[in-house]
Amino acid sequence: MVWSYPEISKEEFIKLLKGFVDLLILASGFQSSGVPAHWDAENCKKALQWGLFFENVLRSINSSDTFGESMRELDEAISEMKSNPLLPKGLENLSSDNLSKGREFVLEHLMNNSTLKDKQLQAILVAAVESGDGIREIIDGKLCKRQSVVSCVSALETGLKILSKHIEPKESLHREDNDATFLGLGQQPIELLRWNIWQSKAISYFLSKRTLRLVSGASLIFSAPKAQWVEVLRRLRVSDKNDDDIFIEKIELLLLGCVTSRWTHLIEGIMSVSYKSVTVSEEYEELCKLLLQRSKSLKQNEIALNSKVEEILEYLTEILESRFHQLWKLPSALTAAAIPSWSPLFGLYFGEIEKQLKLDHSTTRFCSCDKDLNEHNDCELAERVWCLYVFHICICH
Predict the structure, then answer these.
(1) Is 257 helix (H, G, I), strand (E, B) or coil?
(2) Which one of 144, 315, 329, 381 is CB 3.0 to 4.6 Å from 367, fit for a cystine?
């Protein structure tokens, strides 16, 4: 067999491949000395660039039958490397096929190591976003897969508590007026799968290319004095969209303007939330308690909020007027994360949710549940309650 690929020699390719294997060993969590390996965003980005390099080379070799001999030589060299008894476990699946998906292969090792901490997850997310197109979809799937595993462990840890709830009588947490608003809430714990779906949906929104562009735009717009950014929003027009679509995009920009200063903290928060065996009713009850506790002192204790956020919220409340139902057209996670509990807008938004919970069939429904059903378990309404619970109860505490 003869190596015929002209862009790089066989010897140089094998040398680089051995270096890539060393990188994957580090990505798995430990240095050769046994000391844990720590990854920051810059090193994660470099690792992904190496993965992309092998993707491009393999794609080029596979693009022509002329290089068939080169591919066979490559497979033979990889087999020889794998036969080495010193090759660490976890690299048995090294192959030309995996090298052709280099970035995914790197992410698999970065995210599956046993020492992975929230800080490294954040580094991986930052590196993925800065690496550009194509990588977000890959990392999305990896995050969901890992989150499922982590959540399963958390679910097992709470197993005895779940059993005790069924065995021991427990006084209802319902409010006295539950016949008016509480009858429509799910009484069974939210399923692990449903929790993961909602969490993945939130992460996907915050990391989407479109959202990141809007965050960048919002940061620029709201760095100006209020009079200027109000004028910018007033003049905002998109030729191929109707007035309602433009209005919703303005609301989205305003909400994103409330979180630009704590964007990293927001991502870390939603990523770190583990599964809890809790019913929608219990989530709702916690939010009701939070609403009752709202006060000026609570507002003063909020972290990373400033007069700019207050200005945005005041303007947002003003333009929504009696159209607070428009918030239902925006992602549940954004609305929950952006509106602080001390804001009057929080009470108005929560009030819209309460209207949906009342068993009044004349009310326009904003979830997909059948009007004849008595419970909200996996609909948009339950998701919105979950998002408020996660961002205002789980993450804040």
Answers:
(1) helix
(2) 381
